[in-house]
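User: I'll paste a sequence; please echo it back and then give the predicted structure.

Assistant: Echoing your sequence first, then the prediction.
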Amino acid sequence: MTETTAIRLLLADDHPVVRAGLRAVLDTEPDFRVVAEADTAERAVALAATGEFDVVLMDLQFGGAGMHGSEATAAITAVPGAPRVLILTTYDSDADILAAVEAGAAGYLLKDAPPEELAAAVRTAAAGRSALAPAVAHRLMDRMRMPAQALTKRELEVLRLVGDGLSNLQISKQLFLSQATVKSHLVHIYAKLGVDSRTAAVAAATARRLIRR
């Protein structure tokens, strides 16, 4: 494949060493061309809007209080003709996976994936298909097999904020919900996890990798 038809890549990660490592791996593929790098999610969104990329490799967590990788993914994919976004992260919690998929990510890969798996995922995403790491696909399948026991995206959001130490009032303000709705979500969370307290719910969810701590 010639350079003019190469898959054009944007690397979005706040760690220079990670970006350098990714570039070293991706540059070995004759059909890939790393065009640019972004050290913030905001920078990735701005670059993606130029139309110069086919695939964005997006981290989820960027340093500071800026935009999250899922938010950047949603901003990028909302534009017609946008590049495909492949999440490349160390996090495999249900909350992270669901947020990324709902944001429009074309794929979700963990950073410990072997180089050949990464290359295959990039090509799959560029071709317009979904590229999920086996472990991620397995977690999504488990949710589909047991929907009654799976926490919804909103329940995961509430539980994550509980884990951050927020009160029901603070959660209601952050998620624009009534306190009664927050309490209702907690009742459902307790029932699904088989617990009877906030502390136990956070512990159980963390152990099951539903949220990250």
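Strands lie at 7-12, 32-38, 55-58, 84-89, 107-110, 131-132. The CA atoms of residues 1 and 30 lie 7 Å apart.
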